[in-house]
Structure formats: C-alpha cells, structure tokens
Design goal:
Elements (H helix, E strand, L loop, with lengths): L5 H14 L2 H12 L4 H8 L3 H13 L3 E6 L2 E6 L4 H15 L4 E2 L2 E2 L3
Antiparallel strand pairs: 1-2, 3-4
Helix pairs in contact: 2-5, 3-4
C-alpha cells in the first residue's frame, strides 16, 4: 500500500473543493470536451461573466485549469490531459454507486 502523505490529502481536498460547487463542476465538464472561452461558457451555463471569472479563478487556484492568451481573449483548458478522462471515470462511478442521485426526478444527494 502506498504511503498517504499530506500532499496527497491536500490534492484530494483541492479537487473536492473544486467539485463542491455546481458551477465549477459544470465548467470542468465543459472543458473536458475541449478548450473554451469564458464568455461562451458563461452563456452556455447561464451564469454572469463575473460568476464565470470568479469560478475560473478558483479552478486556477486549485491547479485544475489554465488560461492561454488568444489575441484579446483567454482560452481555458484543463491543466492535464489525464484530468478529462478522470472526471469522466469519477462521474461514471458516482452514477453507478447511486444511479438515482442525478436522475430527472431531482438530485437526492444534496
């Protein structure tokens, strides 16, 4: 068994913090599909540009997303190629453990 260090704990806590907010989780799922611009994500997710900016700042602080200048705009991506598939695996696991959690009848995990 691998020794669990404070760095491991901190890394999981950062991921948990990032996923604890629905908007941040939705941003990560959008970015799992590919790079995106904040304005486009704000519109797609139905949030203000200020909310998007704040949530992207949090995700940058957690080390999960990065902004890349693209002319006058900034394009966001996940910081690591492994993160997208890992988020997909985590989502699949959550839905296997509790398929009713996020059904159309409403989330029972709140």
């Amino acid at each position: 068994m691998e020794t669990v260090t404070l760095n491991h704990t901190a890394a999981l806590a950062r991921l948990g913090h990032a996923l604890s907010d629905e908007t941040r989780a939705r941003i990560l799922l959008v970015l799992r599909e590919g790079p995106a611009y904040p304005g486009d994500m704000a519109e797609a997710l139905g949030v203000s540009r200020q909310v998007m900016s704040n949530q992207l700042a949090c995700l940058r602080g957690c080390g999960l997303v990065q902004g890349e200048p693209d002319g006058r705009r900034t394009r966001y991506t996940l910081t690591d190629a492994h993160l997208g598939p890992a988020l997909g695996d985590l989502l699949e696991l959550v839905l296997r453990v509790d398929p009713a959690c996020c059904s159309d009848e409403g989330c029972t995990c709140s």
